[in-house]
Amino acid sequence: MNMTIGERIKQLRKQNDLTQEKLADFLCVSCQAVSKWECGTACPDLALIGPLTKLLHVSADELLGLVTDQTEERRRDLEAAYEKTWNTGALQERYQLAQNAVNEFPGEMKYLCWLASCELDLSNECKEDTQYRAMLEKSVRHFSTVIENTAEHKVKCEAISGIAISLSLLHRKEEGQKYAALYPEPEPLSRRDIMDWLLCGEEKRKNYQELLEIRFSDFIRTLMNAPWYDADNLICFETACEMIKIMIPDNNYLYYHDFLFFCFVSKAAILTQGSHFDQAMEMLNNAYFHAVQYDKMIAAKEGKHRYTAPMLELVEVDTARFVRSSPDTNVEGLLSWLDGRHFEPLRGREDFEALKRKCC
């Protein structure tokens, strides 16, 4: 027998750890009204359906009982498979799952945002410029549809970020700036900031170190976002490397091996561009070292690791939660860089060719 809307409200309320009193307060109705809904003697006003879906974290169809258990199971299967690809880096599989989700659930903006994100990522694999631009145009069209039609904060933010990147790559920066202006400013305080006032002892130290690591990694990412093809930005990558070494003086870099890998490759590209070939090779060998160390951590049976540096010793790294855009290892990624046009001037050098052999 199908559940009534009141029974669904009761079930969802409990799943979200809400009392009748809290739900009533949030909706600005009486506790008696909520009780009547759940007993089946009354139904919520139509105007309350929207607020209820937000409070109970469901769609209107789910709240009204228009979604079958089978449909929900299919959603869960698709979303679990999609999330898994971010750990494996299987982009083609992710793209197929996004296409399936869009076909099976037309009009659902979350799934269309999946598809647009995959199209943006796949553009990097296009060999011809016409294919590259066509794939980016697809992502722009789909991101735009999502932005216009979703009320979900997280989905809209992802779509705005995605369309800004796509338009930048298409050299339509003024158009991208209009979308970027729609992106909400971050809250001044995070949950960890607030918790820091309430914790004490070891819990407070752990919360502080985790907050510090989040802010520090954001700072390093900002430095790394400097265009590596601009020689003036060499200082950004040099600063990132030095800051990491200061923060982690014992060289147990863990996740930051990945940052250092990218920084050294970027420095090598800039130095090659400036004909500083010996220095470029030194940077490439450093990049290889950090690629190997990062890949070892990813391949380790024990997926959880802890920093040992004084300011991060309570911070844990879980490789199972890493997001990957490709199934390649960092060493394989380095080989792709070496085969690219950015290091063409180094071809034929004995040390360069030796490094390529080490990556194979």
Features of this protein?
360 residues; mainly alpha; two-stranded antiparallel ribbon; 18 helices; 2 strands
3D structure, described in words:
By secondary structure, the protein is an all-alpha fold. It has 18 helices and 2 strands. It has helices at 5-15, 20-27, 31-39, 49-56, 60-64, 69-88, 91-104, 109-122, 129-149, 153-169, 173-180, 191-195, 201-224, 234-247, 256-273, 277-299, 330-339, 350-359; strands at 304-306, 316-318. It has a two-stranded antiparallel sheet. The longest helix has 24 residues, at 201-224. The radius of gyration is 25 Å and the shape is globular. The protein starts with a helix and ends with a helix. The model has no long low-confidence stretch (mean pLDDT 91).
